[in-house]
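Researcher: Next entry in the queue.
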Amino acid sequence: MIKNKIQSKVAKAFDKKLGDAVDSFTCEKLIYSGDFDFETQTYPVVGDESYSGRGVRGNYLRDTVKPIDYQTTDAKAIVLQNELTGIPQIGDVWQFRGGGFEVKNISQDPTSSIWTCQLRKV
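Model: Structure for this entry, 122 residues:
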């Protein structure tokens, strides 16, 4: 119940008050599996996956706790879990209209309604 309420209120803010700050993104990635091919130094591609969502991107503040591998050019994204069409993973590259960002770190709030992701420009 609390999760639905949080997601509903944040979604409304994304649509109205935060509308100009919300960015949509997509992620397309290959799925690898099987035995390692030493000639090509790769795993075989067995499929692909894509997902999309929207969220608010910003910079880390000077006085907040930052991830261990933080760089000054990293961005932080707040994303509603119920608006994602897939589950983000470290290493995914999100394509925004301003370019691509690699997911470096992922955490979620205690209600499992919001992802907080550390992004690095690629």
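Model: The two ends are 38 Å apart (CA to CA).
Researcher: Noted, moving on.
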